[in-house]
Amino acid sequence: MSNDHGNTLGPVKIGILGLGTVGGGTVNVLQRNADEIARRAGRRIDIGIACARDLTRKRSCDTEGIQLVADPFVLVEDPQIQVVVELIGGESPAKDLVLKAIHHHKHVVTANKALIAVHGNEIFDAAQRHGVMVAFEAAVAGGISIIKAIREGLAGNRIESLAGIINGTGNYILTRMRDQGSAFGQALAEAQSLGYAEEDPTFDVEGIDAAHKLTILAAIAYGIPLQFDKVYTEGISAITVEDIKHAQELGYAVKHLGIAKRSDTGIELRVHPTLIPQRQIIASVDGVMNAVLVNGDAVGPTLHYGAGAGADPTASSIVADIVDVVRALTTDPTNRVPHLAFQADAISNIPVVQPDEFETAYFLSMEAIDRPGVLADVTRIFGQLQISIEAILQKEPINEETANVIILTQRTQEKYMNEAVTKLQQLEAILGPVKRIRVEHLNHLAT
Known about the structure:
Blueprint: E1 12-17, H1 21-32, H2 34-41, E2 45-51, E3 67-69, H3 72-77, E4 83-86, H4 94-103, E5 107-110, H5 113-130, E6 134-135, H6 146-153, E7 159-165, H7 168-180, H8 184-193, H9 202-205, H10 208-222, E8 232-233, H11 241-249, E9 252-263, E10 266-277, E11 289-296, E12 300-307, H12 311-328, E13 359-369, H13 374-384, E14 389-397, E15 402-409, E16 412-413, H14 414-426, E17 430-439
Parallel strand pairs: 1-2, 1-4, 2-3, 4-5, 5-6, 8-10, 10-17
Antiparallel strand pairs: 7-9, 7-11, 9-10, 11-12, 13-15, 13-16, 13-17, 14-15
Helix pairs in contact: 1-12, 2-12, 4-5, 5-10, 6-10, 7-8
């Protein structure tokens, strides 16, 4: 049997689990670009079965000629399906479905970052035993193909660090707070009304989604196991318009970054609001866009930018993974690109650094009684802990008796800053908690 392009291999039948926004987008791309995709893959790719909870619902894609089922296990166990595309999200039942597909010697393509970050070690081990591939490019940063860039394009490099805006919802909220002066809650409500944020936005605004993605990127960059539980995670819900304005006055932008950095004691894995210099290109990445800055010893810094979500951008990465799987169907399983970039027997046990060992600069904001000697008491605490101060701003008085004090420090270890904040909050003249936001110049990440 030959296909339209003279190849003697017949079409590959795939099954799609989930026909929501991303699933519908994937069907549309596969149908719209069918001939081009076949030319790239070497054979046609046919959607044999698709699974959806509600078979009567109106779809964003044409399902004519596709068998629709409500039971996902029917799809996973069908002997004609060679590749299972998992787009239902979440950890359960996705994990059981993926493991069942692997057990039936089917390749898997998934956009599920939570599944890979939390259960990837088990899934990749099962895939290796059964000689199948699990492709997951769409799990991080939608259409950017950052996983392929690190795993293959930068394979000749020792990755020193990476820093990324890898959650579009949080980036949109911070952009609106900066540009419109909207409070966090107002910007979040707007993101929800536009469909950028879920009804329950916890995963996005508290950094959990970004931590899932950082877990995956770090494993590929450093050849370590997936360790989601060791990522320090902090959200953006406490960021105020005043914080953003004060940062701007000092020449910084506030971004919610995922950072992985090689240090003398191991690998730092952290997600948190971060001040970065406005002159950095990544500081101008606004709205729902994503960007990842990767530093390699040979190539230097590279910036990977693009849409982090949406039906077509995510479908772009999913279809690219499907093409990769189809290309590799006839290859020796032992000679495929490893799931986590490094050969399975070469995964490293480099430790993940504890948060109190992080080293970064800091932006501090505190309310202080407006009287002589207060700043001297504050600076004395930093001097005792050998923390250098970059700048001090005393902002407009909050009332007749108190003022807002902003301090920018040079780099220090987190444990020293913890001690400094504790001592500052014990001063009679400091009212309420001291707010801190970490500061990264990003060029320091390469050293």
